[in-house]
Amino acid sequence: MLADVNRILVTGGAGFIGSNFVHHLVAHTDAHVTVLDKLTYAASEASLASLPTDRVELVVGDIADAEVVDPLVAGVDAVVHYAAESHNDNSLSDPAPFIQTNIVGTFTLLEAARTHDVRFHHVSTDEVYGDLDLDDPKRFTEDTPYQPSSPYSASKAGSDHLVRAWVRSFGVRATISNCSNNYGPWQHVEKFIPRQITEVIDGRRPRVYGDGLNVRDWIHTDDHSSAVLAILEKGRIGETYLIGADGERSNLDVVRAILRHFGRPDDDIEWVKDRAGHDRRYAIESGKLRHELGWQPQFSDFDEGLAATIEWYQAHQDWWRPLKAETEAKYAAKGH
After folding, report:
1. Euclidean distance between CA atoms 57 and 32, whole angstroms
2. Helix 251-261 crosses helix 192-201 at what angle (to 10 degrees)?
3. What pLDDT shows up at residue 332?
4. How high is the pLDDT of residue 187?
5. Domain with 78 in it: what CATH number?
6. pLDDT, position 4
7. What is the rounded CA–CA span in Å between residue 290 and residue 138?
């Protein structure tokens, strides 16, 4: 751990990816962590409940509220910015929260980091690059032009551009990472992998959009966390690093892997209409991160990581069951 980074503010640290990063910090560093989270539907205090209270503090607040943000940033050595509205379907129904949180919220944090000269790391997504053809051998790199497809990905693209501008214009000490699709513990059941896992646990058929051939490049959230920490420790200011674990799988392949784990037939699937603006393929080239910073994923075997994730959802039904019925009702209303 960097000697001068003893206090870290993690925005969105009660959400899926953010809470896993907080767990990673507690396990692998001596840092004191302040979590700033609005506790929207996608966040959970339970995801932090097992952590030591002398090292992890939760502040409930909005990253777009400067009166909340400024004193918190003033009291830390680094900000790791996970907080975001992140569900594509929701952004199609109502883009406004995505603009407010992902763009205005990032601006508010950057201004505080500029005022107090605090190290800043911005966590983003590969969806800012648009998508790739299924038969295209290329992968996204740090030089791929931005071509967002949805209000969600457009808002994240906007936040990335703000970070770069604040580095160049104001000297903010910032880095950016764009990551492929995460899976693992504490992920809301509205998301693809936990939704399918919990459907199968409940004895129903998993649901697949369209033809099921859309490809995502999956990474276990523990690997994402270790990559972000490596960038915080060793990344070059102003640089962008792509985080991926060579986990390209079609949605159909993922669902079939889940079905096999439960001993169900490969074709035990419910097909539903495709999602509007559904990107075809994402794929990350993470060579810069690996060669420059020496990072490697722990879960290089996707099936191994998926099995661990299934076991977690089987063991934590008390956490996800209260979320399940409402989530499925929202999907049913959209025909999904």
Report:
1. 8
2. 30
3. 77
4. 95
5. 3.40.50.720
6. 75
7. 18
Q: Which residues are catalytic?
A: 126-127, 152
206 within domain boundaries: no
Task: List the domain range (segments joined by +) for residue 43.
Answer: 7-183+220-243
Q: Are 128 and 153 in contact (CB under 8 A)?
A: yes
Task: Please state, as a whole number, how many other Cβ atoms lie within 10 Å of the Cβ of residue 23.
Answer: 22
Tokens standing for 277? Answer: 């603006």
Is residue 15 situated within a structural domain? Answer: yes
pLDDT at 3: 55
Q: Which residue has the tokens 């896993």?
A: 20
Tokens describing residue 218 = 């999956």
- The whole-number pLDDT of residue 304 equals 94
Residue 336's pLDDT is 66
Continuous segment of H or E residues that includes residue 289: helix 287-293
Q: Is 184 left (phi over 0), alpha (psi -120 to 50) or beta?
A: left
**What does pTM read for this prediction?**
0.94
Nearest one of 27, 37, 30, 124 to 72, comparing CA atoms? 37
The stretches in the chain having pLDDT less than 70 are 1-3, 336
The pair of three-digit structure tokens given for residue 157, joined into one six-digit string? 């693209």
Question: For the chain, what is the domain count?
Answer: 1
Nearest of 11, 322, 16 to residue 191 by alpha carbon: 16
- Report how far residue 48's alpha carbon sits from residue 18's, in angstroms, rounded to the nearest whole number: 10
| Per-residue confidence (pLDDT) for residue 21, from 0 to 100 | 98
Task: Give how far the C-alpha of residue 290 lies from the chain's centroid of Cα atoms, to the nearest Å.
Answer: 20
> What does DSSP say about strands 248-250 and 215-217: parallel, antiparallel, or unpaired?
antiparallel
The verdict on residue 277 lying in a domain is no
- 268 in any annotated domain: no
